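Translate sequence into structure tokens.
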Amino acid sequence: MGLPEIVDVARNFSVIIRVQGPDPKGLKMRKHAFHHYTSGKTTLSASGVLLPTSFNVSSEPMSLVLTVASIIEPFLSPKHRDHMSQVKPELISGAQIDIFVEGNAKGTPHWLSAELITLVDIPGSSPHIMMLINRFFDSKQKETQRSSMLESQSTDPTLIGNLGTRIAILKLSTKTFEDLPNLKICSSIKRGDLLLAIGAPFGVLSPSHFSNSISVGYVSNYYPPSSSHISLLMADIRCLPGMEGSPVFGEQSKIVGMLTRPLRQRGSGAEVQLVIPWEAIVTSCTRFLSPNTKTPLKRHVIPPNPIENTTSSICLITIGDGVWASGVLLNHHGLILTNAHLLEPWRFKKPHENHKNTISNIFFTHSKEAKQEREFNQRVQVRVDYVDNRVWCDANVVYVCKGPLDIAILKLEFVPHKLQPIVMDFTCPLIGSKVYVVGHGLFGPRCDFLPSACVGVVAKVVKTGGDGDIPAMIETTAAVHPGGSGGAILNSNGHMISLVTSNAKHGGGTVIPHLNFSIPCAALQPVFNFSKDMKDISILKDLDRPNEQLSSVWALMPPATPEPGPALPDQLPGLPGEEKKGSKFAKFIANRQEFLKEASPLDNKDGDSSKYLPSKL
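Result follows.
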């Protein structure tokens, strides 16, 4: 079923929720990214799910609507605002709730008055929200995130988790929607599955413009990772303010769940979009919704999915007490490919002063400082993930590339049974082809998550070589977050086409997740050859040799190309003896590579700050 067919079904169940009321001090708009305030009156909006009459267990004729509680809570009376009550919640005087129904435009869209029935916690999902907050954010970020999710200043962990998933049940008594199609329930899900959210970003501004807007994405991860029943979904989907409360549909136009408010990590720009599974909602609302509409959302493992099959091929790597990244399992003997910057961060420590305003993350550091830190003596641990269990192993450093490529190789000290090496594809991917980034971005060892999957396309393939036919860098539009370094970019067959190296940053330091760079498998052929029997490490020496073209590519500099006419290759026409920028920079990198190869860490005793280590992205 294509997207137009899914949208045609989904729009029957999508509505806009508008809540407005007196707000003399303008306080009720706090914690809401979009609102409307005028003459002492605040208006908030969100999206909602209109349910067929078959969901209603009451004998009273009415239509039920579900939405997020966060849009209602600012207008609750004080006795209901901070604590759930057994009695029906009350709104402050002058507050009102309206619902905008467009459907499939069979009638004239208009606002309908609605009534609040109750607020409901989702105990199946709320503990996992709290777990994410505790483990995803550091102590300072926790307080920031908590205050953004709460209208009150409570620090009760249970209350915080409840507020993150609490929903509101509304009713339309003046009209019932008998002609709604049957709402089919999705019963199984897997990473990489299609998701379609339909709602109204900025709906209060102009419903006719924003109602039934769609956002398409994919399942990135789920929790608990080893349970057959899923309590919380993480979606690789971009939603604007006002989309919270939107119904989320999967393939075959089956409802998967409802969008709730995302978790945002201030400073890094990272955002985790959360979906409450439909089964968790219906289970918590049995007093109001028919139990016959409940279908458990399960991990879908049969038939096997190419992305799910790579779970055991992507490892979690930790250095010392806190730093983590991803790695790719190369063979059955525990050989793992990851990034060199994980093991030698001093080579990537600070931006070069000439690149403050670029989006690249190019780092230089003084050689004297590098000498003090080049000795690597920290403990390296690797977690191998199976579907139902995790195995932690110590690892040794086998190889760290001194050339332009940001790669390193580890070897497990203890080799678990039934390892599942990655399958590499050395062909050059087509621009526009679908890809999956699989790794441990954002969620480290404390979260106990399996690798997450983000979906995008190949945006650019940068090539080198005499004929310009050797892939040197791949750019994709899939989201890459901190911790995803060393992960794999997979094609639709689940085969690895490149190794994740970095994403880009704004000049102010904010990460750009959807612009990222990776090393094509074609450039990693020596690594693959070495992994076959691991006997001849000299195979890897080719990667350590200076390479002007590769250095220029990974420094985001234009390559040195011959100019037509009598001018020499490194000279601009009409300006004898003046070197081009790209050529000069490439020579600088090459010279420093040769210096690293031949000199020992103690050679430069004079502390000459003009000597730099090569940069990496």
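Note: The two ends are 41 Å apart (CA to CA).
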